[in-house]
Amino acid sequence: YGKNTIKFLRLHKEGKKQFVKEVEVCAHLRLTSPQEYLEGNNSLVIPTDTIKNIVLVLAKKNGISSLEQFAIDICNHFMTTFCQVAYVKAYVQEVPWQRLHEDGVPHIHSFICVPDGIRFCEAEQCRNGPLIVFAGIKDLKLMKTTQSGFEGFYKNEHTTLPERHDRILCGEFFCKWSYGECKDFDFNCIWKQIRECILEAFAGPPDCGEYSPSYQKTVNCIQMLVLSRVPQVQVIEVVLNNTFYNVVDMKNLGLTNDKEVLVPVETPYGSCACTLGRK
Amino acid sequence: YGKNTIKFLRLHKEGKKQFVKEVEVCAHLRLTSPQEYLEGNNSLVIPTDTIKNIVLVLAKKNGISSLEQFAIDICNHFMTTFCQVAYVKAYVQEVPWQRLHEDGVPHIHSFICVPDGIRFCEAEQCRNGPLIVFAGIKDLKLMKTTQSGFEGFYKNEHTTLPERHDRILCGEFFCKWSYGECKDFDFNCIWKQIRECILEAFAGPPDCGEYSPSYQKTVNCIQMLVLSRVPQVQVIEVVLNNTFYNVVDMKNLGLTNDKEVLVPVETPYGSCACTLGRK
Amino acid sequence: YGKNTIKFLRLHKEGKKQFVKEVEVCAHLRLTSPQEYLEGNNSLVIPTDTIKNIVLVLAKKNGISSLEQFAIDICNHFMTTFCQVAYVKAYVQEVPWQRLHEDGVPHIHSFICVPDGIRFCEAEQCRNGPLIVFAGIKDLKLMKTTQSGFEGFYKNEHTTLPERHDRILCGEFFCKWSYGECKDFDFNCIWKQIRECILEAFAGPPDCGEYSPSYQKTVNCIQMLVLSRVPQVQVIEVVLNNTFYNVVDMKNLGLTNDKEVLVPVETPYGSCACTLGRK
Amino acid sequence: YGKNTIKFLRLHKEGKKQFVKEVEVCAHLRLTSPQEYLEGNNSLVIPTDTIKNIVLVLAKKNGISSLEQFAIDICNHFMTTFCQVAYVKAYVQEVPWQRLHEDGVPHIHSFICVPDGIRFCEAEQCRNGPLIVFAGIKDLKLMKTTQSGFEGFYKNEHTTLPERHDRILCGEFFCKWSYGECKDFDFNCIWKQIRECILEAFAGPPDCGEYSPSYQKTVNCIQMLVLSRVPQVQVIEVVLNNTFYNVVDMKNLGLTNDKEVLVPVETPYGSCACTLGRK
């Protein structure tokens, strides 16, 4: 199969107010025949350059009301236009431009990049199969400075980790969920709702938090909350790349360190991942 | 000279509420004698490991009330403790953790990383010289989708760029200013004030913006506004790494493109830099 | 499942001659029960820290005769030691240290890092299943300045790419092959042989090369040559991330440019991938 | 001032044999008047696009016989063509394409990227001043697995580092030297000679090496050897970004580890730098 990445900006105006989407689109295609590979016969090959043109033309004609709708548009275009396409996947990712505010007043044409979790989506379709839509958030970095521990784990002669009931929980989240064969969803609204679920499940109530006995359990809490609150989500995958912090031992330096100064442990780092769906 | 980079986390509590600073500190030292280089005589060398310990001990003892105060503490410690140090510079940069909010309520111990401009500072001192403090913001990405042009530039036989009076202005800013020999400044407050000046000078009034005839002029506007509004700033340097966007020519594709779809031009990219001080 | 990354150096001596392997190991584990996720019950969980210790102990005890053997050792250890492990995968990647030579004489203890294609391998096993070994090379950048074209491709109203019969072929290769259920292979020797096949199939005969009608066909040639020359390989996957170069149009500048000056096209970039096995 | 980066490929043929240079050029200009900044008057500004065109035209017309000559050409062009230029600096860096060999036979048009130290150069000139040329190598990673120690350093209450007489010496080198006001040098030949000096001074004799009492002393040895062997070099700056490795303590795991397994220490990392010239 082949894959192509295109970056571009889509502007539009409503009166004098300007709106901007900057996206990176990656289109994957698989053809019905491998003759290009086996025989060097290019007659069915759709060049990267053509794919780029199509994506830009679709952006011009349709705009980007939501990343998901734009990914769906791309899949539909390739499936209906090219009978040699056996499979198409469109991945769309957003540069997180946010409107600038001055003293609370929104600016009509100025934006700031705020990458606190990147929105992305995927639409994919096999010929004669359903069009399936995924959405997600990545590069979302969160930290809890307390209410986290790791105890009661399996121990043997290679175990050196002490049990801890008050550690830092910190990591980068990748969450991706499936909408199934969706139609007429308000993708922008649902995405914001899911982002809030993730933050809420990670952090717990604002006044006291909620104890996390492991990275794994926190991953599961996020999945459970999203599935319970957002009926459009069929399956949700969460990957957490943890950053470990060690309390610095300052005994040699004549000081006690009551979890005040910690250093990140860069090796080893771990990640845990889980995919959870509805019954 | 030698340079060392240390990353760590500093936590503190006020009641049950938790606060966090994650910083990267880089300490530069130059010794009074080059004998370590010329003769392999290490007797004056302060090992990286010792520097790390000192930085962590200072963080433990003093906390990090502001990046600037912490950088000053480091300089003071090295100058007063080690007579073999001829010059010290402490660079401190912050990981932009922000307190999480749920429905507007701040969480007592959960944080999200929001890298919309990274705060940093530097303090430096030569033996018998003044301690000078710099602060700055980097990796700040801003965009204006209109009210920007570039006309009337120098032309010769190698000129192919057309004049434009409605282009995109987009780039990454690095701003660094000097406080001179400061004392008792509220560094956190001043930094926020300067950040707002930068955004305001870049964007112009929220309802209409202000026309920018060049990247260079925008850089100058930022400098002028900061110097006029913030008396503590002595000199300000601004570097702007521009991203150019070209309106896609869609004539071949049978479409007109009225600045709706643009692609980034990755080569060449340019930057402009200027340093401006008071008379 | 969980994943952990550990970096370390393994030294050994033969007489006064020193040998070094620097590797990055990533161990993936899946347990027989998801109780850690669902119930927060950690009693079966093998902490990252324990996995790190095991990998370091295996390196100390067994050395790293080849990346593949080390990956096999890791899989065997986890499968035989922990009955709660349902699946294990060990990925091992090498930092490409090469012995320094002075005037052709090898140095007994000095090395230079030469990253002209990174060697890696994977071993994986499900409980009660076979242990399967993969090996590969990644980040291998190759270029042919002639003997490459792209013609006869599919055209429609979105096609703007001209046909070309003398373009640059340039890209980064990722190749990964399976040895099936291997035993007693000389993995180091086979890996070098496959690397040479890849280079030979890419470049063609040294005096004239071989015409490539497309990236896809070059990918296929590499796969065919490896499968024909190296009987231990069962299946081979090749991914080629192309870099496109455009001949600069210098007509406006009063010059003809006979494929002398070219600029890389950063957007769009494409990749093609293919997996080929034996019948 | 302004800065612009351009990447391109320069091909040429001798008979059927093909040669390639891929370079990244960064041109810095400072104008005689700051009116572009202060008044938004662009009449003296040379657009990025024009600079790109000039660099490409020079590459087309002159070829790239050496990076240094090309940088000199760029400086000369800007100084002689534009009277508004007060200062010009041209930085040129090479993508390390090497000719492929099959069984020792060089291939006429195929290349592999071998980034074992990146060659770069700089030429700079102020109006009415001399043209000065620098050259250098960066991203050169070297390791000695023995014959290195660090003892006799300064100690106080913050010292926790033990003395070591058999540690790993590993790091990334940046070396930059000045040729002064050069003329008619064989830059390609001198560069290779200096690279060999660096490797030789780092490693010592192939059969036994030479003991390094510190990173600093190794930096100095490199500088001394280059200055003594290469008369064209006026001044040489060396920066060494060290990677520290710790022998893993395996006592808790019931094993002795005789410098066989080591882990990189990612924080703190240090660097030492020194500039040395002739009297």
From TrEMBL, chains A, B, C, D:
Statement: the UniProt record of this protein carries the keyword Oxidoreductase: yes
GO BP, sorted A to Z: purine nucleobase catabolic process; urate catabolic process
Residues involved in 5-hydroxyisourate binding: 48-49, 150, 167, 216, 242
Protein's cellular compartments: Peroxisome
InterPro entries referenced in this protein's UniProt entry, alphabetically: Uricase (IPR002042)
Plastid keyword on record: no
Family under the similarity heading: Belongs to the uricase family.
Protein name per UniProt: Uricase
